[in-house]
Write a structure and sequence with these properties.
By secondary structure, this protein is an alpha+beta fold. It contains eight helices and three strands; from the N terminus they run αααααααβββα.
């Protein structure tokens, strides 16, 4: 039961585990970390102790992490991004019976604007196949090119 409560401790509960003076030093260490553009805890301790000769000690940094949890600003942008898996674009042919049933398709076309950017939207009746493409301009040449692409799919 105590272990379960440990996961949900508040800052106030964590603060009570430390003497008042060490808590104040942890607050000062966290403020210093935020002023220094949120370096990681080990970098903060290294810079503060060895390079700046500041009054912040390694114990202050550890206490700040224990009381306030790790500084999330220090974690942002430091996680390595894994490459996504490759997506294969296998297009299976449409079965012959479906092609026979839907030989004649009615295509509905409309132009929609989103933030003053024109898009052409097509939907086929009964099949409900929807396409959306951005329009470079609204001239007949551009519209006919997009409609040819849709009809040859």
């Amino acid at each position: 039961m105590k272990l379960w409560r440990r996961f949900f401790d508040t800052v106030e509960q964590n603060k009570q585990r430390y003497p008042k003076r060490l808590y104040q030093r942890a607050v000062r260490a966290r403020k210093f970390q935020n002023i220094m553009m949120r370096p990681g805890s080990w970098q903060l301790a290294d810079v503060a102790i060895h390079h700046l000769k500041s009054p912040i000690s390694n114990a202050d940094v550890i206490a700040a992490d224990n009381i306030f949890e790790p500084n999330f600003g220090a974690l942002k942008g430091k996680a390595a991004r894994t490459l996504p898996k490759h997506v294969f674009d296998n297009i299976d042919p449409v079965p012959r019976d479906i092609l026979e049933k839907y030989r004649d398709v009615t295509l509905c076309v409309d132009i929609m604007f989103v933030n003053k950017i024109p898009f052409i939207i097509t939907i086929s009746r009964y099949i409900k196949f929807i396409t959306i493409e951005v329009l470079s301009n609204r001239q007949v040449k551009a519209l006919s090119k997009i409609l040819k692409n849709v009809t040859t799919m």
